[in-house]
Design brief:
22-stranded antiparallel β-barrel, 6 helices, 40 strands, about 50% strand, iron transport, TonB-dependent siderophore receptor
């Protein structure tokens, strides 16, 4: 692939969310109505060879597939084969074959990623951990940060790109683990209609539509719609529905001037899961005989501790994007293009869900559970504008492929919580302790075994007066350059300067005072990599990168919240060094394999200092091995997967109070040397499919990981697991195919969300879905 082709391939396709309009307000019926437009005949049908009939997909492409995986992030100034960084691309084919219907489903195929559970300041939503570090705020849509706690859908995605390692040079404030970039569907140059209708176990129903129309000699319109409903296999009460619509129009498909206008809307209603509490370990005292082993209690998988008439979660996401591009020249080796992207978005996350709280010892002492009500009513509004200049040029005999730009971003979050009348305490004790359960406790206490989610809990709910407003502003300048010294040696450089300001204001109430905290800091993040190419189809690289995480990194809607105690601290800084190799193998380079050794260190982690204050004096270390593969072993046999080994150590966890509250004694933390929470030492995944005939394809997958700790104490944990999935598809003709997916074939009981020290999230049990895919 020439550099010019690479440059065009990396032009970020824009997505998504629309500012709300009245047409968006009717719920799933709207998506079904829009789907009816798919029966309209296409004026210019796509060529038959665009889609492999033996493997139903959700993606249509007007061009032949390039060699190896391709990123749509234009900050990568070289093909992925020559980019000195670990990047995993989950393609539309893999998403479709595995039956994924959410971002967390799609990421199940990527080892090294774990999913955290909501708790306390950690809201319900996509809560990702990459290489051991929390990456909750490191999700991007077409290269621009997607703020606000959400549970993201896949109906409008072409692919998902996971960048491993420090990500600040690309995205600004971020974790040391990496980031996830979602690549949106965009309008194509020819007409097509696609639709899918699925049914399955546990009340599964899903319908999607994808229509593309050429609306002129150089413009096109595309519309994606979705309606979905299902319960969670093996979990009582849990489930919900959602619907979405995403139109996009492109003017100037062939350039040199291009404008992409896109909208996106997603609404969801659900009863969120509560998980199962940990069997608390007790290390001393009179209750030692009741000591638990630290794993979740061995109760029935369907056990649900929530309240069906209290718990809910309503979310909404609306975003509009205008993406403008002008090519000054497109001569191979001497191209230049200017791009400006403006995006406005608004997301809402509104919920009450029951955490089966074990903090008062109820589970171990009394065999009861306090139904702690975790609540949130949040609205996050974002405005971002990015202007970049990219291209290729030669200077002093060296070939440069570059991208430089400026970025302005503003995020505003308004956050509140609910209060209940009567309250959620046990009225018999006026506390959270539950020696008994049932009606006398107003059903705020329930039994550990066989709780009734339909207990007649009666309440009135109002929004608390303790409202929090967070305003975050970022200004940034960045530049990336891949320098071709000669055909065998490349030098990749990147630098970014961020000016980060965030303020938090909490309104006073009758019992609490107003709170104000502010962070005003700037930081530089950089990366450098040397690439050696022993042949055109392979590379060996050595790279270094840094990352910065300032206080208030989450913009007021996550775990890394701004407080008075941390407002004067420096950004946490991480360094990563990586030695890796990438190869495109077999004829045509149809199989890509990667491998990397890396070490990441955070030397100024925020921990408790010897005087009891929070300071940047801790240290975390992660070293590991990562292997990946994707592509085709033959024209009929596809594979995708990898393996990750992580040795993640809390090298210095600061100090702990070994005295009393009145007379504290600060001693080195007893948890120094423990493993990171939410980080398995070993994780692996494999998805493979084989087209036995042009019409029939079968696939099989496995995802596995070793034990995971839920706390830095390393005394609460979930065991490792291996999960198996299968798929079979059959094309009735070139326009209709059927696909059967069986998830969790062995009905394995395992826990897939572990970050709270109080409970672990239960993974879905065995389920089956049958989907009919249509082309018109």
């Amino acid at each position: 692939m020439t550099n010019n082709n690479k440059q065009q391939a990396s032009f970020i396709k824009s997505r998504k969310h629309a500012p709300q309009s009245p047409a968006m307000r009717p719920a799933p019926a709207l998506a079904l109505t829009m789907l009816a437009t798919l029966v309209m005949p296409a004026a210019h049908a796509a060529p038959d060879n665009i889609i492999d009939q033996s493997i139903p997909t959700v993606q249509v492409s007007g061009a032949s597939a390039p060699v190896g995986p391709v990123s749509n992030n234009d900050k990568f100034t070289a093909p992925l084969l020559d980019t000195p960084k670990s990047v995993t691309v989950v393609t539309a084919d893999t998403i479709a074959q595995t039956g994924a219907v959410s971002l967390t489903d799609a990421l199940r195929t990527v080892p090294g990623i774990t999913i955290g559970a909501g708790e306390g300041g950690n809201p319900v939503g996509d809560n990702l951990f990459i290489r051991g570090y929390n990456a909750q705020t490191d999700t991007y849509i077409d290269g621009i940060r997607d703020a606000g706690s959400q549970s993201r859908e896949i109906f409008n995605l072409e692919q998902v790109e996971v960048v491993k390692g420090p990500n600040s040079a690309y995205g600004g404030r971020s974790s040391a683990g990496g980031g996830v970039n979602l690549v949106s569907k965009s309008a194509q140059a020819y007409d097509f209609n696609q639709a899918s209708v699925g049914i399955g176990s546990d009340k599964y129903k899903r319908i999607t539509g994808d229509v593309n129309r050429n609306i002129g000699s150089n413009s096109a319109f595309r519309l994606n719609v979705m309606a979905h409903e299902n319960d969670v296999a093996g979990r009582k009460v849990v489930g919900g529905n959602r619907w979405g619509v995403a139109p996009t129009v492109t003017f100037g498909l062939t350039g040199p001037d291009r404008a992409i206008i896109s909208l996106y809307h997603l609404t969801s209603h659900e009863i969120p899961d509560t998980g199962i509490p940990f069997n608390n370990p007790i290390t001393s005292g009179k209750d030692l005989p009741k000591n638990g082993n630290g794993t979740p209690f061995a109760v029935d998988r369907e056990t649900f501790y929530g309240l069906a008439n209290r718990d809910f979660r309503d979310t909404r996401s609306d975003v509009g994007t205008i993406d403008l591009r002008h090519e000054f020249s497109s001569t191979p080796g001497h191209s230049l293009a200017l791009r400006n992207v403006t995006r406005y978005g608004k997301s809402n996350n509104d919920y009450v869900w029951t955490q089966p709280d074990d903090s008062k010892g109820n589970t171990v002492l009394y065999g009861t559970v306090w139904r702690r009500a975790n609540t949130r009513a949040t609205e996050t509004r974002t405005f971002a504008n990015v202007t970049s200049l990219s291209g290729e040029l030669s200077t002093f005999g060296l070939q440069h492929t570059f991208n430089a730009g400026v970025e302005f971003d503003r995020e505003t979050t308004d956050r509140g919580s609910y209060v209940f009348t009567p309250g959620t305490n046990n009225p018999l004790t006026n506390t959270f302790t539950c020696p008994t359960s049932g009606a006398a406790t107003l059903y705020n206490c329930t039994t550990l075994v066989n709780p009734n989610p339909y207990d007649p809990w009666v309440y009135s709910r109002t929004l608390s007066g303790a409202l929090t407003h967070v305003n975050t502003r970022t200004k940034a300048v960045y530049a990336f350059d891949t320098i071709e010294i000669n055909p065998q040696w490349l030098l990749n450089l990147g630098v970014r300067w961020d000016d980060f300001q965030t303020t938090l204001d909490t309104l006073p109430t009758a019992t609490t005072a107003a709170v104000r905290a502010r962070v005003d800091t700037d930081f530089v993040s950089s990366q450098a990599g040397l690439v050696y190419k022993p042949s055109k189809n392979g590379s060996i690289y050595l790279s270094w990168a840094s990352s910065a995480t300032p206080p208030g990194n989450d913009g007021g809607d996550g775990l890394d919240g701004l407080t008075v105690a941390v407002q004067n601290l420096q950004p946490q800084r991480s360094r990563n060094i990586e030695l890796g190799t990438k190869w495109d193998l077999l004829p045509g380079g149809r199989l890509s394999v990667t491998g990397a050794l890396f070490k990441s260190t955070m030397n100024n982690a925020r921990v408790t200092a010897p005087d009891g204050t929070t300071q940047n004096v801790g240290r975390k270390e992660v070293q590991g091995v990562e292997l990946g593969f994707s592509g085709k072993l033959s024209t009929a046999w596809t594979v995708f997967g990898g393996y990750t080994w992580l040795d993640a150590e809390v090298a210095d966890n600061g100090y702990a109070n070994t005295g009393t509250t009145a007379n504290p004694v600060w001693s080195p933390s007893p948890f120094n040397g423990n493993r990171f929470p939410t980080t398995p030492k070993n994780s692996a995944s494999l998805w493979t499919s084989y087209a036995f005939t042009k019409a029939f394809t079968a696939g099989f997958g496995v995802s596995a990981m070793s034990k995971v700790y839920a706390n830095v104490n390393n005394n609460k944990w979930v065991p490792g697991y291996a999960r198996f999935d299968a798929m079979a598809s059959y094309a009735l003709n070139q326009d209709i195919s059927l696909q059967l997916n069986l998830q969790n074939l062995t009905d394995k009981l395992y826990f897939d969300k572990v970050s709270s020290p109080h409970y672990a999230g239960v993974a879905p049990g065995r389920s089956a879905t049958l989907t009919a895919n249509f082309k018109f």
